[in-house]
Amino acid sequence: MSDQTQLDNTPNVWRRLIVIPAIASMLVGILASGDSHDREPVSAVVTAPQPMSAEEIAAAQETDSNEVGKTVEVSMDEMLDLAEDALEATVANVDDYTARMIKQEQDRSGVLQPASECFMKVATRHPGGKPGSPLKVYMRFDSPDDVRGREVIWVENENDGKLLVREAGAIGAMMTVPLPPDGFLAMRGQRYPITEIGLTRLLEKLITRGSVDREDPSVRVFKTEGHPYDGRSLTHLRIQRSKPSGREGDFSLAELVLDRERNLVVSFRSFDWPDEETGERTLIESYEYHDLQLNVGLTDHDFDPANPEYTFVESKASR
């Protein structure tokens, strides 16, 4: 090889030296943040509630009061009515929102992942109450420490359907990686793909699950008004099973928090059946929406990786 050829190839050599380690580091970061096979399961940050005792159930059956702090047993039909009203209101009235989401869930292999917290922006599929628009999501992770600073953008039907990831850390910040939302890397350590995210989809899944249990006598529902949440007094609903259903997504206890004033479900969590040895219930999934701001006027700029408030690096998929 001539000296001139070596000089001509020098930029390509340096490019490989920089880009290949960056890609490797980013992929390691993504895998490490959700590796369900090489890491021991962690304990839930959410303490599992105890099932209501026979005395508590009897007391709940004897009252029909909506007094703050009083727990009353309600039918699955009543709970579904509340959820369906909330879904109808969400579709009709919520065009977009920002929130601080705290999430913890078992991945698809049943390993409980660390709790994560992110700031999110969401433009719904139903602005103006008319379904059919693309879902748009921006997320910036604040915890755990190993993903602090990670940014994700996913816009339905754009970027070849891929989500754009700017990984945390100095090397990860050097480039943006496009990933299929349901692919191996994007789903590592996740229970659901990003396509399932948001207030609307949460309600839809709750209604689907609840409808199956409508006639199941082993399922009981208890409602408590005055549940404290973000400094406000909301409605707490507990769904309690007396025996396993044998269906996919089965749980022993589930809880949701309903904001009746805004007609939104702002929290949902469910727990597995007690461990035979310890008697403890493991968290299955928990989603909490805090500091929720509705209809803030998000635009395409909020879901553009070129937004100067973000730290994405230009990629082929985002051009």
TrEMBL record:
<keyword id="KW-0472">Membrane</keyword>
<protein>
    <submittedName>
        <fullName>Protein containing DUF1571</fullName>
    </submittedName>
</protein>
<dbReference type="Pfam" id="PF07608">
    <property type="entry name" value="DUF1571"/>
</dbReference>
<dbReference type="InterPro" id="IPR011465">
    <property type="entry name" value="DUF1571"/>
</dbReference>
<keyword id="KW-0812">Transmembrane</keyword>
<feature type="transmembrane region" description="Helical">
    <location>
        <begin position="13"/>
        <end position="32"/>
    </location>
</feature>
<keyword id="KW-1133">Transmembrane helix</keyword>
